[in-house]
Specification:
This protein has 27 helices and 28 strands. It is of the alpha+beta class. Helix 2 packs parallel to helix 8, helix 4 packs across helix 6 and helix 18 crosses helix 20.
Amino acid sequence: VLAWFNSQLPRIDSLKNYEPALITQVWDRHGRLLTEFASQRRIIVPLNKMPKHLRDAFIAAEDDQFYEHFGIDPLGILRAAWKMVVAGRIRQGASTITQQVARSFFLTQQRKFSRKIKEILLALKLERNLTKDDILFLYLNQIYLGRGAYGVGAAAQMYFGVSPEDLTLAQSAILAGLPPAPSRYAPHVSPEKARQRQLYVLRRMVETGRITQQAADEAAAEPVRIIRWEAPSWRAPWVDAALRAWLLERFDEDTVMQGGLQVYTTFDLQAVTAAQQAVRWGLENLDKRRGYRGPLTHLTDAEMPAAISECEQLVDALVRKRTYGNVVALVGPVLELTAPALPVTDVLTPDDVFQGVVTGMTRTLAWVDFGRGVGRLSGAGMRWAREIDPEKSAGEETVRRPAERLRVGDRILVRPWDEAHVRRYGIRPRDIEEAIEELQELSEQGPTMVLLLEQRPDAQSALVSVLPQTGELIALVGGYDFAESQFNRAIQARRQPGSAFKPIVYSAALDNGFSPASILIDTPLVYEDAERQFRWKPKNYEGKFYGPMTLVDALTYSRNVVTIQLVQKLGISTIKERARQLGITSPLPDDLSMALGSGVVTPIELIRPYATFANGGRRPEVEFVRDIWDAAGNHVYSYLPPTSAETINPYDPFEMTPPPGRRSVPFGLVSAPPVASLPLTEFPQAISPETAYQMTFLLRNVVERGTGWRARALGRPAAGKTGTTDDNIDSWFVGFTADYASAVWVGFDQLRPLGKYETGSRAASPIWVRYMAAVHEGIPVHDFDVPEGITFREIDLKTGRPANPWSRNKTLLMPFRKDQLDALLAHEDDSRSSRDPQQWFDDPATLMQRPGAW
C-alpha cells in the first residue's frame, strides 16, 4: 500500500528552486511604490532577515519538536487519533511544519486518510532532501496569514506596517497564532480572539524554554496597533487601471499577477496626487455653482431613529480615523478602539463631510442630528443651494432660509463651517461676505456646531499631464471617484474639443500664406444646402461680430467665424492632414464644423498637438512605461526610441534601476534605488520650429489677453486654449509651460449642459491652474526658446501693418518667419505706392504715416 502511495507522489525537486507567486511592483519616476498587482500578496523574506523570536513563535505554536523529529511526530499522530476515536470525528490535527509545507505545495486541504498518508510520505522525502532551515524558510514564506497576506513578510506589512526584521515579540506572537484559522483569529476582525491566541503562543514559548516569563509578561502588556491596510493601488487608482490594462495587453495574466515583475513608469506620484486633488476641488466648486439636487433620501418619522443611528456609526468611524489615524484595532490591554470622549466639535474639522438627518426646522434654522450631536444649519450655510437651472448662473438666486430647500426627515451631507469653504460657493461676493458674517455670529452664540450643506458632485473631469520634451506621462486622472465609476475618461472618453481644436487650424494657416499679423474679417456668414434643407449661421460665444482683426486676436478671443473662414481658404483636407501630423488619430468630420471642434477626441489625444508646440514642432509619443524587469533580473521590455546627447528637464530626472537578480531576496517594501537620467527623445518634426514658436506665441496671448486669463496666476510664461461646446456641454483647457503640458476636460457622462457661463475658462482652467501650480512648485521660471529663424516686429493690431512711433492703435511685438516678414513689408510698400496722394489728407488717422510726412 505504501509503495502504491509512494508511486503517486509528485516530485519535490521544484522546491529546491523555490519560485512562488510574487507581487508585480510598479514604481514611479522617483522610485516610489506606485501600485502592485498580485493574486497572492507575498514578499519573500530570507530566514536570516527574520528575527529569532518570530521563528521561535511559529515553532512553539505549531511544532515545538521541529528541529528534533524526522518530518513527522508519531506521538502527536497517536494523540490526534485517540481524540478522534473518543469524539467520533476529527478534533485535532497532528501535522508538523514539514507536513504543512508538503500539503501547501503539493496537496489539497481535504480531510481524507489518503491525503494524510501522502502528506506523511512527502514530509519524509522533504526531510531527506532539504535542511530544516530550508523547510522553515518555505513554511514562513508560503503560509496564508489572512487579509490576503501570504508569508510573514506580507503579513507584517499589512497588519503592522513594518518589515519582518522590525517585528516585536508581541507582534510575532499574534502572527504565529493565525495559521489554524486566519479569518477567525485576525486581529482586525476579532481583537479578543487574537489576544487569546497571542497569550497562548507566549505561554508555549515559555514552556518550551524559548523566552523567559518576564519577556512574555512584557510582550503581553504591550499594546499592539493593527493598521488599516490600504493597497498601494488606491494611491493612484486611475493610473493603476491604465497600467493593468497596458500590461495585460503585452503579458499573460499569470506573468502580470504572479510573476514578480518590476515595472518602472514615467508617472510622478506627487503629481498624480496633485492632479486628483485639483480635479476633486474643481468639480466640488462647479457642483456648488450648479445648485442643489436634493437630499440623499427622505425619511418617515418611523425611519428616522435607525437612520440617525447609522449616521452616528459613520461619524464614529470618521472620528476614530481622525483620532487614531490608520489604526483599526488594539491587541493587548485595550481590546478595541472607541470614539474619544471629547466633544465631537473638538475632533471634527471642516474637511470632514458626514451625514445627518433634519429633525427640526425654525424660521431661520434647520436642526441636523448626526448621532453624536445636533448641529445648526442656517440659510448662510446653504446660500448656493438654489434649484438647478442650466439657464441661470451661480449667484442669480441664493437661498435665505433652510425651509426653502429642506424638510424634516431629509438625510443630507454636512460639514463644520469654515470661511474657506464658504468662499467656494460661487455666489456673488457680497452674498459671500454676508454669509460669512452671519455664520460667524451664529458660531459665537453657543457650543452647538454650525454646519454647511454639502453634496457629492455628479459632473466628471479628466486630467492628463506630460513632459512635452519626451512625451512621458506624468499624471493621469479619469474622474471624480474611482470607487464610484471605473470609466477612465482621460483615455477612453471621446468628447468634442470645441475651440481647443482651433490651434490646429491656425498652425496650418501659418504654413499656408498667413502670418500672425494677417487681417481677417469677423462678420456674419450663412451656409445653406437647399438639397438637404440645411442652414447654418455660425456665431461667436458672445453673439456679436467684431469686424477686421489680426490672426493673433482672432485666436486670443476665440472668434468662430474667422476660424471657419480659415478652413474654407485652406481646405478641409489640409486641416485634417495637419491634425494627423500633430497626433490626432480619431476620425474628423468632413465639413466646416470641424473648425469649431465638432469631432471627438480623448484628452490624452488632444494633449499631443499642444506638446508638439511646446517641443519645437517635434511630436512626442505619449508613453508611461519605460522599463520592465522580471523576477530573475532579466530586462524584458524597454521603450528606448532614438535619442540625442541632450537631457530632459534636470529638475525632474527619470531615475530608475533594475531589481536584484535573485528571487529569494525581497525587492523592497518602500522604494527602489535611483539610476541615470533618461536622454531626450528625437521625435519626428511634425511642424517647423518657427511655426511651433508662433503657435506658442498665439496661445500665450490667449493667456495674457484672452479667455485663458486665469492661467496668469501661475506667475510664469504659459500658453493655452479654452474650449467650450454648444450649450456648455463640454469644457476644456489645454495648455503648457516650458516644463509641462496638461489637458483638463469637464462635463457629464451623459450629454447635458454644465450650466450658464460654465465655459472652459470657468469650469476647466481653474483645475488646470491648481494642478500646474502644484507641479511647478520649486522649479525655476523658464521662458520658451526662440528659434533662430524668428524675427520680431511691432505690429499695429488694428491694421496688421508695421507700427511706427506715431501709431494711435494698440501694438504688439509679433514673431515672423523671414518669408512672412518679407511679404508683409512688400505688401506695405505696394500699398503705400498705389494709394492716391489725396487719401493721405482725407484720412487724418493715416496722415502722419505718409512717407516723408515729417
